[in-house]
Amino acid sequence: MRNTIYIIVILLFTAGYAHSKTSKNGSITSLGEDPVKETNNQKSSALQFKSKVDSIDYVNNQIIISDGEKGFNKAFIILSDSAIFLTTNKTLDHRIFGFAEPSKKSKRLLLLSIFTSDVETNPFNCELGAYYDTSGMQNMKIKYISRSKDFIKALVIETNTGKHTTIFFERKCVEFMK
Question: 30-39, 46-55, 124-133: which has the minimum mean pLDDT?
Answer without folding.
Answer: 30-39
